[in-house]
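[stage:ingest] chain + small molecule (S-adenosylmethionine)
[stage:ingest] validated
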Amino acid sequence: MDAIARDLAPKVTAVLDLKNVQRLLDLGGGPATYAIAFAKAHPRLQATVFDLPQPIKIAQEQIAKQGLSDRINTLAGNFLQDDIGKGYDFIWVSQILHSHDEGQSQGIIGKCVQALNPGGTLAIHDFYLNKDGASPPGPAMFGVHMLAVTPRGRAYTWGEVAEWMAEAGLTAPEHLCYDEGDASILVAQKKYRISLLNPGYSGGGDRLPNQSPLAI
Ligand SMILES: C[S@@+](CC[C@H](N)C(=O)[O-])C[C@H]1O[C@@H](n2cnc3c(N)ncnc32)[C@H](O)[C@@H]1O
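[stage:predict] done
[stage:export] tokens:
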């Protein structure tokens, strides 16, 4: 998977506009290949790589080798159970969902939405299937492999993952097919909650006690 990431990372950094991103999370970032590419492309960006304790040691070595230990930190843990931090402007989830079942995948997306700043972006990179669930050929073959080698994983259609993202409180996702290959990215923003009431408004009318201000 690292060889694939090293091939795809320059193409991904070329297509994503991260110039306003200050804090990035690479969830399940493995050897930090993408976090390193993002940090090199955007000198003001601070990144966190989250992964299980063993892979995180490899990530730390790679980050140090690239002289980026002051800009990329690491968090060791299990993203299904542990806190993944918060205050991120951008969360990158690459090649993760296909190893997990639908409930776990929705849980990961929900956790990411909680960890994002309002207006922040969630990008989910995977070998997505088309709506028919059987094409393109690469992701279809990959999906069969996932059925064999993971307890409950499979390849998902980009439509089903986009639906989970929207249900979790993100804007309608864009599907970025960034090159001729089999991987593509779903990108969406966490919605702002905008109060429609003037900050000087102190109640009155028919609001119930303890009712929070009207927000969208
Ligand atoms: C297929 S690799 C993808 C690595 C990298 N994101 C990429 O696209 O090349 C999946 C990564 O997720 C990590 N991972 C799997 N389950 C995890 C969990 N429950 N908590 C944290 N990391 C996990 C693995 O250790 C591995 O590094």
